[in-house]
Write a structure and sequence with these properties.
mainly beta
Length: 513
């Protein structure tokens, strides 16, 4: 159910901003730079605080090696402890039942305690000793032992809850589970569930995704699962056996082909990203959509697909993260500068048929690899997009390697010569402008509408807290002036909603004081 709530929230964001630019949210971290190096993974807690990990050492100039947590507004959470890790984490997931934080990666110790590849933190960032993986992950071949992904199976009965990890390892707590890659199901205390025994062979596992029936989609560069040939994609039953109803044919192919991201659509179709050239001998460069039975969905055609990685990482053009949306479109991030011959900056949004969505635009995008995309609930009925990666600019503006994006309806800075109409509004005759913006003490809201409509003006701070409301009758030909309280003159968002609570307009307010 949580997945579909997230889809619905995201749909609200984009239906309210159709045709507008997707811009950097300057209220996040008070418009200051964030992480000083790579952010590889992001998770959002129930209170909308953001936990993230990567290769960085500092956040906003403060020592926060490998991982930390920030408040909803992007500022450092003083209640989250500084971690002492000997290596990076590549995945972070929040347990929904208690908000504890699971991490996986290539580390071997946390705060001086042995934790090879997987660990759990309390909500304050301290190590949870009740989760004990024993000797953790290991292997007999020369390679980078690492947990690349993990998922959580929630259940009303605590005894039925499980944690599944996948990565590049061969043993877990001394038990052989694969060759050059593996999948392990754990109990909540970190011990291995011996009844779950998928055998992954000849390659790492990079991506895991539970579908609506709790079957597990597994992606990577492996060749076999459970003794059967499964090239880079497979699905497991709840008991860990191979699901033979998922028929992917010859799978994904191409030089060094692998699947590195999996996303599930509301209708159970599957979006697959990675670096590959074909699926089942049909051209699909970097991205494909499969039906629930594992066959290629021909109605999703990306043409020439994704090409031309950035100058630093040109060795591997890759779709690294996929964010499916309720309307069937998908936001894609990774290492690419063109899509189907169209320039783009490592992020793009595609329509349900796989073609470029000309709605909300990312402009020049990011200057480097996008590693992860997540949603964060912000204002009531609205979510914003968090991005982490190798980048340090978005739309040519410096930010750091963690940033938040949003889609305002308008950024009018003075009385418009012509009305600014909100596309997709319930009544297309409605328009709003807010001026002056920047302002000193007060603003004027001007509306034009064919007939009067009751609205409410709302002001929110950077944490999404409602500061004030003001009733307004739009379309009466009268300007409405609002004195902005001194306490609200910093990183303020103005929103106008109709009687049904639907957003008709939103914008930043920029104070000159």
């Amino acid at each position: 159910m949580r997945t579909f709530i997230a889809y619905a929230i995201l749909l609200l964001v984009y239906s309210s901003g159709k045709g507008q630019d997707i811009i950097r949210d300057i209220t996040f971290n008070n418009d200051r730079n964030t992480a000083n190096a790579v952010v590889r993974c992001i998770a959002v807690q129930a209170d909308q605080k953001v936990v993230f990990f990567g290769n960085f050492s500092f956040y906003n100039g403060v020592w926060k090696p490998y991982g930390t947590r920030v408040l909803k507004n992007g500022e450092i959470d003083p209640d989250f402890q500084v971690l002492n890790m000997d290596g990076r984490a590549d995945v972070v997931v929040v347990q929904p039942w208690d908000q504890k934080i699971l991490i996986g990666g290539g580390f071997t110790t946390i705060n001086g305690v042995s934790r090879r590849g997987v660990a759990r933190l309390h909500t304050d960032g301290s190590l949870d000793l009740s989760f004990n993986p024993g000797t953790g992950i290991d292997g007999s071949y020369g390679g980078d032992m690492r947990v690349w992904d993990l998922v959580v199976k929630d259940a009303p009965v605590p005894a039925d809850r499980r944690i599944i990890i996948g990565g590049q390892f061969e043993t877990y707590n001394g038990v052989h589970i694969g060759t050059k890659g593996g999948v392990v199901q754990l109990f909540e205390n970190g011990t291995r569930d011996a009844s779950y025994n998928p055998l992954v062979e000849d390659g790492a596992v990079y991506a895991l995704c539970l579908d609506s029936s709790n079957k597990l989609l597994v992606g990577g560069e492996f060749w076999k699962v459970g003794g059967s040939f499964k090239l880079r994609i497979a699905r497991l039953n709840e008991n860990g056996t191979l699901d033979n109803t998922f028929s992917s044919g010859t799978g994904f192919a191409g030089p060094f082909a692998s699947v590195t991201s999996i996303g599930l659509m509301p209708d159970n179709r599957i979006v697959i990203g990675g670096y590959f050239q074909q699926f089942n001998s049909i051209t699909r460069r970097g991205l494909a959509r499969l039906n629930a039975d594992g066959s290629l969905d021909p109605t999703f055609n990306t043409g020439d697909g994704f090409q031309n990685g950035t100058s630093v990482h040109d060795f591997a053009t890759e779709v690294r993260t996929v964010l499916p949306m309720a309307d069937g479109s998908v936001i894609v991030g990774g290492n690419f500068t063109t899509f189907n011959g169209i320039p783009c900056g490592n992020i793009i949004r595609l329509k349900p048929d796989g073609t470029l969505d000309t709605g909300p635009a990312f402009g020049t995008g990011f200057n480097e690899w996008v590693m992860d995309l997540k949603l964060q609930a912000y204002l009531p009925g609205e979510a914003r997009i968090l991005a982490g990666g190798f980048f340090n600019t978005y739309r040519s503006t410096a930010q750091g390697s963690l940033m938040r994006m949003w889609t305002p309806i308008s950024l009018a800075v003075g009385p418009p010569k012509t009305p600014v109409t909100r596309p997709g509004a319930k009544n297309e005759h409605i328009s709003f402008a807010v001026f002056p913006n920047p302002y000193k003490e007060k603003i004027t809201i001007r509306s034009l509408k064919s007939k009067a409509m009751s609205c409410t003006v709302q002001l929110f701070n950077a944490e999404g807290k409602l500061l004030l409301t003001r009733p307004m009758v739009a379309g009466t030909g009268n300007d409405v002036q609002i004195d902005i309280p001194v306490s609200a003159r910093k990183n303020t968002v103005l929103r106008i909603v109709d009687a049904e609570g639907k957003t008709q307009y939103s914008t930043y307010l920029i104070s000159l004081q």
